[in-house]
Predict the 3D structure of the following.
Amino acid sequence: MNVPRPKMVRNNTMPDVLATYLSKLKPGVSRSIVGHARAFCSWLGDRDLDREAVEAWLRYRARRRCKPTTLKFNFGVVKRVFDANGVPWPFNKGEGPTISERDEVRLALGEDVITALIKASAKMTDRHRAFLAVSTIYGIRRVEIGEIGNEDFEWESRLIYVETQKGGRQRYHLIPEEILPHLRAYRWRRISPASVSKVFAELKAAAGLVGSSGKGAAWHAIRHTITQVLMRGGLNSVDAHNFMRWKTSTRDMAERYASPTTVIHLDGKRVEAGASDVELDKRAFSILPWLAIWKEISVEPNL
């Protein structure tokens, strides 16, 4: 006889669940993660904090055309809410959303396409040029672009702070002189991911990437291209990984073992294999082909 499993009864109201989660946040947790947690708690309402609620939340997000990668991210954020509230996680390892090879599209843009986008931005707004500049130099994700605020810049030191998503490293990057005027010309404020996507759609249209030629192209495709360009240009896997701000666990063991951070020699010297942030940025900038093009783009729109 099958005995129904009792629900995980929650005596707290939604604000209590959210307040408990927020009170236990560690420093450095990205605003995106907190935003997803707030969205889940708001949707939760009077529901019990249990497996049924998580499954219903994922179905709700899927109906809103949430991508498999984002569903998996949501799943991880909800687990944090459970953990913070002391509620046992009702899923076993491997039971969460999965990402098929078909879902994991790794689209990249040709270097000529990125060049066309930059040149097209010359006749557009400060926002178009600023967003495209940080994308083509740092490979910043769509959500990360939308999270940039004026307080993330240290103009005197020519630094930009990137609040990396997906558990990656959050760090400062140098701002090369070629894009500095474009970043300073825009009044940075946080906007929604949808608004950031709209900017890219407008850039594509201006560059002539319409119809099938631009199908599927988005901000993340530039990130893929930058990685390829850096690796072809001689950046080792450790430094490419650090420049792109990925979390350590995304590198497989073979790659990690083949790319040590320190090498010991017979004379007792220990040589650091990974570059410092400043050195790494300078090396990456010397490889990326688009800084010279940005230098030719006027801060004032060339209408």
Observations:
- The chain has two domains: 14-84, 111-296.
